[in-house]
TrEMBL record:
Protein name: Uncharacterized protein
Domain of life: Bacteria
Organism per entry: Roseovarius albus
Length: 36
């Protein structure tokens, strides 16, 4: 089924985005929100 492949792709994309946003950028985001 192609649905399973699409689900795996979506999950991998979401995990990649989470990793990208929760590593070092998260700290700068917190400081930016704090200054605002």
């Amino acid at each position: 089924m192609h649905l399973i492949d699409q689900c795996i792709e979506a999950v991998s994309l979401i995990l990649a985005a989470i990793r990208r946003t929760t590593l070092k950028p998260a700290m700068s985001d917190f400081s930016a929100y704090g200054s605002k």
